[in-house]
Amino acid sequence: MTTIELRQLALGDLLEIEEIERRSYPTPWSRSMFAGELAKPSSICLGAFEADVEDGALVGYLVVSRYVDAWHVMNVAVDPDHRGRGVATMLLERLFDLTADDARRGYTLEVRVSNAKAIDLYERLGFLSRGLRRGYYTDNREDALIMWKDPVGR
């Protein structure tokens, strides 16, 4: 199995981010959306890179924005060839480590109601269903499940 190294994403990672994004979602984020999040000091943008090879490839990423009462998981994706290996779990657990001293903010995200694998992952990490956003996804008007996790410091 490939060894994974987690580090902060940079603008130089945009091409690899876009490739994974296009392979992962029917309505991918644009380059400017990612660039905007990477530039925001209040965002946490982590990448999972192959550590076994020089110039290891990006295999997954996590983009989180800080709001007054929550860390909003905006985007998480793993290259289809690397799914099922714990990459998303590693990224989210690193987020929890980085924000553990923030007892004021919980974590929230939206996920397609049909994405059972993602919902299962989030539930294993302590997220609970807290509501529904009807017609949230623009490609097919699918509903989004709103999930919440209390601050880790509590």
Furnish the topology, listing elements before pairings.
Layout: E1 4-8, H1 14-24, H2 31-39, E2 43-50, E3 58-66, E4 70-78, H3 87-98, E5 106-112, H4 116-124, E6 128-133, E7 144-149
Parallel strand pairs: 4-5
Antiparallel strand pairs: 1-2, 2-3, 3-4, 5-7, 6-7
List keywords for this structure.
154 residues, alpha+beta, Aminopeptidase, seven-stranded mixed sheet, 4 helices, 7 strands
- Radius of gyration over C-alpha positions, nearest whole angstrom: 15 Å
CATH superfamily: Gcn5-related N-acetyltransferase (GNAT)
Query: CATH topology, which one?
Result: Aminopeptidase
CATH architecture: 3-Layer(aba) Sandwich
- CA-to-CA gap between the ends? 35 Å
Largest sheet: 7 strands, mixed
Low-confidence stretches: none
Our count of domains comes out at: 1
Shape: globular
User: Strand order across the biggest sheet?
Assistant: 1-2-3-4-5-7-6
Class per helix and strand makeup: alpha+beta
Tell me the number of strands.
7
Query: What is the count of DSSP helices, taking H or I runs of 4+ residues?
Result: 4
Question: What CATH first level would be assigned?
Answer: Alpha Beta
Question: What string, H for helix and E for strand, traces the elements in order?
Answer: EHHEEEHEHEE
The amount of helix comes to: 25-40%
Mean pLDDT: 94
